[in-house]
Amino acid sequence: MKNIITILLLLLLSFFSFILNNIFYSDTEYIKVLKEYSSPEYMITQTLLDDYLLNMEDKASKNMIADRVLRSIGYLQWLEYIDYIEVLVYQSSIMPQEEPQLIVVLNLTKDFAVAAVFEKNLNHYVYVNHIENLVKVESLQFIPLPQKDYHMMLIYQILDESFGGFFYEKFVDVYNYIGDDFKEVWQKTLYYEEIYNESWINPNGAKDKWFKVIEESVIDFSLNYPLKVNTITTFKKYIATSEDLPMEEVFSLTESNSFTNTYIWEEEYQTFIIGEIPASIFPYKVAIIEDMENDIYEFYGIKNDNFKLKTSLGDILYIPKSNLENMLKTTN
134, 165, 190 — which closes off a domain? Predict the structure, then answer.
């Protein structure tokens, strides 16, 4: 009998402990949210925004906006470098809300950036979400989503490792608001250039032989339904002979090829696709999102004859093109 009473008391104690813990946690979260909505240090007021937009060279308003963003996203360690942070400000509807959102990009270093999203609340903006793992942001662009009342966000970025790393890349990441977060749904290299020595990838290679490879893409969004991206991509390979890093004019073109693609936005896959595989091949719907054979790494002697696929469940698959062709023949 005593054992039963002891067990019951322990169960009651655990239950009340659980209730009290949740009440305390909820109160803590409530206080945190209330603080962020009411404390001036977490707000970007309309007056501050107007002052900045009126004079983007004004260091005081620029630093104040950067300060508000850093505090809102918890990047307090960057406050001491605030004078050196580049600020980019945009306004667009990127969430299903009546009022457009405020998007503030902070270029913290040459290869590290963050984009924070704020929503309008009376005469000020409060923090909603942010996107990390960006490199230096050059600009943002917004593309209307078919049959939606908000836009995709295109983040144009630059990764400059030409000093020491011998490569330079410009690319665009496309983000869409999915659920309650911003997800990357597509990426495309716009310009890539790399210089390397033959001996770096081949131990027996000549140390005076240098290569330069360039990938360049032009993209064009067709905003009619369905939303499409038309791309033209060109690969070029140059060669030079030199004991040291060659000058630009020393390189001569040895190989070049180009191809076109059309990517179509498919809501079901939450990405742009280049084709869909018949349902008879897989037990679920699958789309082709990239032909991996069209890749600059072929110039490095690395061949990739795979299709990159995405299932309707969100899984990413890679399958040899020959295997898929055989599957299609079998089902015909």
Answer: 134
Residue 173 bridge partners (DSSP): 155, 187
87: its two tokens:
């600020």
* Tokens representing residue 296 in the block: 């600059």
Peptide bond into 226 cis (omega under 30): yes
Residue 171 in any domain: the answer is: yes
Whether residue 206 lies inside any domain: the answer is yes
Higher pLDDT, 257 or 20: 257
Residue 24 lies in a domain: yes
Q: Is 0.70 topped by the overall pTM?
A: yes
Are residue 123 and residue 199 in the same domain, yes or no?
no
- Neighbour count for residue 198 (Cβ, 10 Å): 15
Q: Same structural domain for residues 150 and 253?
A: yes
CA 84, 192, 183: angle at the middle one, nearest 5?
A: 70
Q: Kindly indicate the confidence band of residue 25, based on its pLDDT and cuts at 50, 70 and 90.
A: very low
Is 130 found in the same domain as 62? Answer: yes
Could you tell me the residue range of the domain that residue 318 belongs to? 274-332
Which residue, of 258, 291, 315, is where some domain finishes? 258
pLDDT band of residue 21 (cuts 50, 70, 90) is low
Residue type, 270: Q
User: What is the CA 50 to chain-centroid distance, rounded?
Assistant: 28
pLDDT at 2 over 60: no
**What mean pLDDT is predicted for residues 15-22?**
54
Name the token pair of 17: 């402990």
Give the integer Cα–Cα distance in Å for 184 and 133: 11
Check: CB of residue 269 under 8 Å from CB of residue 312.
yes
What pLDDT digit, counting tens, does each position of 234-255 carry? 999 999 999 999 999 999 999 9
Q: Is 176 part of any domain?
A: yes
Where does residue 20 fall: left (phi above 0), alpha (psi -120 to 50 degrees), or beta otherwise?
alpha
